[in-house]
User: What shape does this take?
Amino acid sequence: MTVKTTTTFVGDLEGLQSRVNILDRVQPEFYRQEVEKVFRRGWLLVASVSDIPEPNTYLAREIPTLNTCLIIARGEDGEVRAFHNMCRHRANQLVPEGQGTAKAFICGFHGWSYHNDGRLAGITDRTQFKDIDESTLGLIPVHTEIWEDFVFVNFDKEPRQTLEAWLGAMYDGYRGYFSNKPKIASHRITVNCNWNIALTSFTEGYHAMYVHKATVPDYQGGSSNPDRHRPYIEVTNYHGRYSVEGNPNHKPTEVEAIAYQNGRKMYPTFPPNATVDLDLPPGVNPLRIENWLQDIIEIFPHTFLIASAHWHTVVWFWPLDVDRTLIYGESFAYEAKTVDDHMAHTYFRTRLREVFREDVGIIESINRQLKSGVMEDMYLSQQELLLQKHYGAVDELVDQA
Amino acid sequence: MTALPLEFIELQPFVAEWALNNERDRFFKLTQTSIPTLREFYDAMVPRAEAIADYLNARDLNNLSEDARTLFHLLITFVETAHPIELKWKTTDIEDAFPAERFGFGETSCRSPI
Assistant: This one.
């Protein structure tokens, strides 16, 4: 007789609500509270350190929720710093969004220049300025901390807690896992949907059997786990994570088999855990389940990560307005050296892309339906525990003075 | 038009349309083509894919000759566009998925060999 997969629940489940008001959350007034109390006060994951691997590399990234753009730069000294991408003279944007290499940033408006550590380097036609102190006119910094391969910023005047406290139980357990993987895919869309609805359509596995029939019909499930329960679900102070069990009887398609024949096994194929030739840190596949496909990790408020044996993905949900969200998805994998590696990478990134397009295909109509005002609340299952935590965490922060 | 290595010359008719060098071009080519057109390419490539991989694995990817580079792009485009055939979609796009024309691509740190 087959032993059925059961779920191990970890963390403080007290106070989680299975019945959640959803109507209020799609209203502009609630959204304004979220922007001020969640996004302006919390630590926000904004970039991967891998994007700026060398001294003098930088990334300019829009933070549309807070009407700004950041320059995230690695200085000549190797330090990573973040600044508003804004000339201190008359607020012109210094560099266009994207990645680059620069020791200095020069404003296209009047030629003011800045070192990549933020210090003002020079003012053109300097003698015409009276009563200014160059030492106070560097780029406007943002509180910045690094965790593993991720850059976090905090837009509060003074952060209310450290990044370590914000990440809580997530902080330890991933040592080195996210580092040293080049970015192999970058996808970007704007959806007409509230950011909470968009994010939480990814952070449960209950939908997988129904939404992903066309793209990954048999990657989960199988006789030991027909309902596709998560073997491990954990909630923390604000965040949550779970492990996804793969179907050991998954039948690779012909090209999937070719792509992973010699290269490493990537989605939706997976290597048996016992054969993973990597020293995965304890936070990744915490139960060490054998048919481990991947972990889903929500880093509150607006990102989730997918962690697998040979790749990871970061997905951002930046609210543009109550009903509009900018979504970035970026995937990282070991460096491709052979044709087999390239086939594995490209097969993986496109199969996952199509699964992602199914997820976002459904959310705009959900948002429209909710705006009808007909349905006030929703009921969430134990398998949707990360949603219970997400909405609980939003409410906790919004309720603060 | 770039020629393929002689061993793979029978795939030459597919080069102009399918030897694409980035994910964005492959995606829009895929979603704008028909299943019968895609199937012709797929059916021609499946039996040759392993031989192509062997041919390229014997070479330095960072220093490919032009014909080998074209072959590489043909192979990778094949791998990236196989899903509609293998997953038995009715069209080259998925029903009910987020519209292809609204889908965007950003920068990666990892480029295919040029």
Notes: Residues 17-94 of chain B form one domain. The interface with chain A takes residues 23, 26-27, 46, 49-50, 53, 56-57, 61, 72, 75-76, 78-83, 86-87, 89, 94-98, 100, 102-110, 112 of chain B (CB under 8 Å). Helices of chain B lie at 15-18, 23-32, 35-45, 49-57, 66-80, 83-86.
